[in-house]
Amino acid sequence: MVSRCNLFDYMVDVVKGEMPGPIGMFRVPDDKGAALEYIIEYALNNALLVNVYKTYKNLLVPRVEGEDRTSEIDVLMVSDKGIFVLESKNYAGLIFGCADQRQWTASLNRYTKERFYNPIMQNRAHVKAVAAYLELPEGMFRSYIVFGERCELKQVPENTEEYHICQRRRLIKTLRRDFRKRRTVLESDGLKDVMQRLDELAAGSSREARQTHIEQVQAAMRTCPKCGKPLLERHRKSDGGLFIGCSGFPACRYIRDRW
Ligand SMILES: [Zn+2]
């Protein structure tokens, strides 16, 4: 998991409580996406952030009007300075994206690019859903988009009052600065209420609810985001390579590289 060249960085992170020690590393999931979520939550709980009251991982939030499915929040952190909703992104390569662009790109090289849904928009929907569930104003929430170490944030939007984009290694430092800047918005009773409601939600994030969520996501993945028609596997004429195209072709020309 840890190569020689970044062993020093790793040891620094362990000392700061931002990464599990060598034995704790055995508990980190093999799946890279799940590993990033695990490490983010680990750091929030172990880096001695005095403002952090409780963290939740993989929280399923009921759908709100206008959304067609439940939201799954990677990591949610309750603090006296607000509720922080973290979306982890484990893409490799150079990351490009604008605030108002629907698709962002992770570019490994000239030929290998991966497109993904704008994480600011994605996490905005998460914040909306959890704010509605907790019946709190969206202004009490902070959206954090946390990328892993395998990428470089080549061209991403400037941070705003609503969202913050950073890489995992800068997360704790960024949060400390954010906590210092922000006023207290949740006192003891408010904190207790919020945590109680989130505990109920976490208890409901059961295997059954998770299965329904996975089915919804899979169904959405097999539907064209442009026109809503089913997507199909197709072969390129030039080299026979596989790609995913819209069954509404030629009226709709939506394609992507894989499911
Ligand atoms: Zn289509």
Description:
The chain has 259 residues and is of the alpha/beta class. The chain folds into 2 domains: 51-221, Trna Endonuclease, Chain: A, domain 1 (3-Layer(aba) Sandwich), CATH 3.40.1350; 225-259, no CATH class. The chain has 6 helices and 12 strands. The strands form 3 sheets. Strands 1-2-3-7-9 form a 5-stranded mixed beta sheet, sandwiched between helices. Strands 6-5-4-8 form a 4-stranded mixed beta sheet. Strand 4 and strand 5 (103-107) form a beta hairpin. Residues 224, 226-227, 229, 246, 248, 252, 254 line the site of zinc ion (ZN). Residues 224, 226-227, 229, 246, 248, 252, 254 line the site of zinc ion.
Any key phrases for this structure?
single chain; 259 residues; alpha/beta; Trna Endonuclease, Chain: A, domain 1; 2 domains; 5-stranded mixed β-sheet; 4-stranded mixed β-sheet; 12 strands; 33% helix; globular; binds zinc ion
H and E string: HHEEEEEEHEEEHHHEEE
Bound molecules: zinc ion
Termini separation comes to 27 Å
Strand percentage lies at 25-35%
Write the layout of secondary structure elements.
Elements: H1 7-15, H2 32-46, E1 52-61, E2 71-79, E3 82-89, E4 93-96, E5 103-107, E6 113-117, H3 119-134, E7 141-147, E8 151-155, E9 163-167, H4 168-181, H5 188-204, H6 207-221, E10 231-235, E11 242-246, E12 255-256
Parallel strand pairs: 3-7, 4-8, 7-9
Antiparallel strand pairs: 1-2, 2-3, 4-5, 5-6, 10-11, 11-12
Bound molecules: zinc ion.
Condensed summary:
With 259 residues, this protein is of the alpha/beta class. It folds into two domains: 51-221, Trna Endonuclease, Chain: A, domain 1 (3-Layer(aba) Sandwich), CATH 3.40.1350; 225-259, no CATH class. It has helices at 7-15, 32-46, 119-134, 168-181, 188-204, 207-221, and strands at 52-61, 71-79, 82-89, 93-96, 103-107, 113-117, 141-147, 151-155, 163-167, 231-235, 242-246, 255-256.
